[in-house]
Fold this sequence. Notes:
Layout: E1 3-5, H1 6-13, H2 17-25, E2 39-41, H3 42-58, E3 71-82, E4 86-93, E5 96-103, H4 104-109, E6 117-123, E7 126-131
Amino acid sequence: MTQLRISEAAALLGVSDDTMRRWVDAGRVPATGERGKKVIAGADLAKLAKDLADDSLESLDDGVGVRSARNHLTGIVTRVVSDRVMSQVELQCGRYRIVSLISTEAVQELELEVGSVATAVIKATNVTIEGRKTSA
């Protein structure tokens, strides 16, 4: 059975070591071993990862409504390259770099520019970008 150190488990879930330790202390995920040398079973971490993903889907309330795509990565736009018809938009979503080709018209309608917050919606091999308009 796979056993992961707290730091390894935290990295896999994209959280800090301290967050993972708090989850262990709170009983959200079981760990074995002594203080400072605790490990988490891979199966237990997989269950937690699935629970976290399911929780994030249920709490998603961004006004869009129900979606069929389950993979949403929110990040910051780091680059936009446009011509008359198409644009390449790059997002940095945590440690992940997402690149999407969308119409230049969509980039303009979503007001996407470097520094904008946007969400990549991933379904199969197709990535769409959802912009988040800022309040003036």
